[in-house]
Amino acid sequence: MSVVLLAEDDERLAGLVKDFLQANDFTVVVESHGLNVPRQVQNLQPDIVILDLMLPGKDGISICKEIRPNYEGPVLMLTARDADADQVLGFEVGADDYVIKPAEPRVLLARIHALLRRSNREPVDTGDVTIGQLKLRTHAREVQFAGEPVPLSSHEYDLLLTLARQAGKVLSREYLFTTICQRPYDGLDRTVDVRVSHLRKKLGDNSDNPTRIKTVWGRGYMLVADAWE
Questions:
Q1: H-helix or E-strand spanning residue 76
Q2: Cβ neighbours of residue 208 under 8 Å, at least 6 residues apart?
Q3: Where are the alpha helices (DSSP H) in the chain?
Q4: Mean pLDDT of 74-80
Q5: Is the model's pLDDT at 123 over the cut of 50?
Q6: Phi/psi of residue 51, each to 5°?
Q7: Average pLDDT in the 2-16 region?
Q8: Under a CB-based contact definition with an 8 Å cutoff, are residues 159 and 195 in contact?
Q9: Distance (Å, rounded) from C-alpha 223 to C-alpha 229?
Q10: What is the reported pTM?
Q11: Where does the pLDDT of residue 83 fall: very low under 50, low under 70, confident under 90, or very high at 90 and above?
């Protein structure tokens, strides 16, 4: 039974979410104060953290940034805000997805299941991928470039693997989003753009003039096969 840490200070909402998730075979621990969440994450090591953006004591963005170095599970932001800047900032500090309140319970459940599948699944194709000095060990979900390990989040790894397996081909944002997030693309979500930016930084690509993961305006992104020597 998967363990959910729900960081939510709205007592009524927390109770409703907890009851719904427990009815769907989850164990749910509720934490209402932001300052206590990092300790709860460390002690529980939950399968997933559902993190409200606005919490007393410490906000969700600060909490996500604090726990990320030592927590590898998925983080789902639960927020009343729908501002694009909040979503991008959440991704920047390590959130994997977000749901805008009030969330329909089955939508929330579907997002949780998708994140858990992604964090635990093995790729269908288990063959390792090597492009020049870029090596992806698919069974271990590890990446090396020029002989050095490259630490990536689960989302970043999935995006890089998708691009690498189709190196030299332009892949649309819609294709990348639906492949990684396993839900329809609404045309506005910035998840793919943020992940590409992260990959460029971690792989030493020039963000102003990228040569390894190129933006093809109006079409999408392409991993350049001969740029990894």
A1: strand 75-79
A2: none
A3: 11-23, 37-44, 60-67, 84-92, 105-120, 154-165, 173-181, 191-202
A4: 87
A5: no
A6: -120, 115
A7: 91
A8: yes
A9: 13
A10: 0.60
A11: low
Is there a contact between 143 and 157 (Cβ–Cβ < 8 Å)?
yes
List residues bridging with 100 in a β-sheet: 79
* Separation between Cα atoms, residue 60 and residue 132, nearest integer Å: 39
Of 98, 68, 104, 66, the C-alpha closest to 81 is: 98
Position of tokens 């001969």? 226
User: What would the two tokens of residue 116 be?
Assistant: 């858990």
Q: What is the Cα–Cα distance from 162 to 5, expressed in whole angstroms?
A: 30
Tell me how many degrees the CA angle 89-73-173 measures, rounded to the nearest 5: 50
SS3 content of the chain, % helix, strand, coil (to 5): 40, 20, 40
DSSP run (H or E) holding 137? strand 134-137
* C-alpha triplet 98, 102, 103: angle, nearest 5°: 55
* Short-list 162, 57, 173, 50, CA closest to 116: 50
Written as six digits, the tokens of 181 are 């997030």
